[in-house]
Amino acid sequence: MMTFNNGWQLLMMIASIVLLQASYGHGHRKYQPYTYGEFKTLNCTGDFDGNKGAFKVLRHICDECYNLYGYPYTHIKEECMDDCFQNKRFKNCVAELKMEEKRHEFENHVDFVNNRF
Ligand SMILES: *[C@@H]1O[C@H](CO)[C@@H](O)[C@H](O)[C@H]1NC(C)=O
């Protein structure tokens, strides 16, 4: 009969976790959030490294907006990020999150991640 030592069990546990996360993340999105891969998938044409901060802020708005609705309204997040944040849903999200006083700052961020400055 085969016995498993602690090392083997640990390895199996790690493998299960990795597999679980992989299947969870691959429903809609090819890339992990807040990464260069996601930036490119959203068709952002700006420089990722130079605009990481701006991207993080915009990306976070879409997470928070989705949180207002919760599961299963995942399309809210997708719509908010569509065309690298150049869409009506994003503007509505800013309003719904009561962040309109920062609207110009966000518009500048959108210009930067879309290489318009
Ligand atoms: C990115 O651009 C492609 C080609 O124009 C388009 O099909 C796709 O929907 C766009 N994706 C996003 C998230 O804007």
Automatic annotation (TrEMBL):
Keyword check for GTP-binding: no
GO biological process annotation, one example: circadian rhythm
InterPro entries: Crust_neurohorm (IPR031098), Crust_neurohorm_sf (IPR035957)
Pfam families linked to this entry: Crust_neurohorm
Signal peptide positions (record): 1-27
SUPFAM superfamilies, per database record: Crustacean CHH/MIH/GIH neurohormone
Disulfide topology: 44-84, 62-80, 65-93
Annotated keywords: Disulfide bond, Signal
Similarity section: Belongs to the arthropod CHH/MIH/GIH/VIH hormone family.
Protein name from the UniProt record: Uncharacterized protein
Species annotation: Meganyctiphanes norvegica
